[in-house]
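Researcher: Structure prediction, please.
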Amino acid sequence: MISYLHFIFVVACMHTAQSQTTLLAATPNAINIQDARVALVVNQPYKGPRVITQTEPWEAYAVFAYNSVVQAGPQDFRMYYDCIEGVNKTLANRRICMAQSTDGLTWTKPNFGVYNRSGSTNNNILLDDSGVSVFIDGNPTASPDEKWKMACSTSVYGSADGIKWHKLSNTTPVHAEDDTKPTAYYDPGLGKYVIYVRRDVGGRKIGRCVTDDFTVWEKESPSGCPIVFATDSKDPPELDVYTNAWTPYPNISNPSVHLFFPSFYHHFGTNPYGHGNDGLLDIRLLVAGDLMDNLTYPSANNARSPFVPLGISTCGSTANSPDVKDGWCSDNAALTSTSFDTSAMYMASGFVESADGHEIFFYSSGQPFTHGGYQNDSWVNNTGIRVLRMRKDGFVSVNAPYYFDTNLSNLPTFTTKEIKIPDNCPKPKVIPGSSSTGCTYEFPNEQCPSSMPTATCKTDSDCLEHGALPTCHGVKVGCKSGVCSTGKTGGVMCRGNASTTQGGAELHVNIETSVAGFALFEILHNGSVVPGLHATAANAIKGSSLNAAASWGSDGSTSLSSLAGETVTIQGIMTDAKLFSLSLVCVDPPQ
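Model: Predicted structure follows.
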């Protein structure tokens, strides 16, 4: 039992906090781990139901593949998605449709009246194309009728409202072989457009172009978008990268990390159904700390495993060996009933934050047929786009095992990279406490009330902090078994609340622990622990919270403003806990 620690259960922050600097466990080089018991782990999202399905005649062939999610305003989310009508069991009539949602969970397909299909505009079709990526252009020089931008596989568009689109150029903005779901944004830091593309050069790879002209992606790299990620010697030779689904997180203006959700394509060694260019695709996670860095896997042991695995196949026990003729779930009647993402999936770029701010919603499309198995339509409406639910910041976590010891120096630890304490926060406030003390005989059941907790101690001198000569029933109080007490019935001292310093710069953590587990934090400056901000003074954090404020001392002080402008390192001490992110935030002090 660690009797000398101050435990607090995390609760929602009651005063306003604005994040200044956030370190995610997913951010490259943000977390330093020297303790072999501590590990970075990629967390898979929860697979929710399909939220976009084949409900319209112009979606009769499939709803799948290349999609993009954009927030147009408060409670105004838009999904631009691949809707395929098909002709004679082919991919003909492949278009871009749009759905809308107020919460990211329920999506509708309004009639936008902009596309003439068979003499009617009563549909949600926007235009003929595919490989869609949409963003609201932050370029201050963008004209009002082009504030919305769309990048497709081999063309670009502009719009004033994100509904009525016009082509910006009749020329292809990129090499013809670099097709399939580019992802684009305007980066305000660079003052240029950044477009991630698929490079088809010696296998599929991810390339990145930077340009000041959205219609000419290769303006600064005429030989092709420079390659920033490819499979390597640790991968099987039949594996390559199909898409990128670049998603700045939490946004392009102030990203903590750049997330990528590429579909990795594993080509069949022997085509089980004789289709050319055939195989399976699942979704992985790649990251970049800076926009111009090369992409990399998170520093986790399971980093190369699927972020989103294939759906469960119900095609039969003999349909799981694609190197065998007829050995996979394709070209058979089971395609109508097996998981819609049995064989392939693709992540949409962008995300939706849940209304309560607790979750992030991503969206993955799926298909029961293999990459080359699209020459028929035997799956009958078994495609679509599902929601993937994940804890906010929860892509990667720092995991500490179930290990307990009364000596804090023996517990699992990690440190962060150096980080600057904000120097533009409101001035913290000293909240006076009560200096009075009491004894348990004065209270019901001879127990200290929550407003006057038991006075804990390590030595007799600790009890003197509560009074020059503390007594209960006239008997002097001393330190006995970790509490200030006379050793007699009713003789445990109940302490008054000391003053606490709150507001200004604070450390908030996104964390989950078991009921037994906890996390402590200490602040290091110039390699040394800051007095008063060491682990033995830290209040242990328990439970699950997105923004638990780290505090120190029996008064629960949270302010780090005494270090404003200084560069520090944060050390975490955890057991049976997962840490997802740490943020240095500016907090308005209580009024």
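Model: The longest strand covers residues 504-525.
Researcher: Thanks, that helps.
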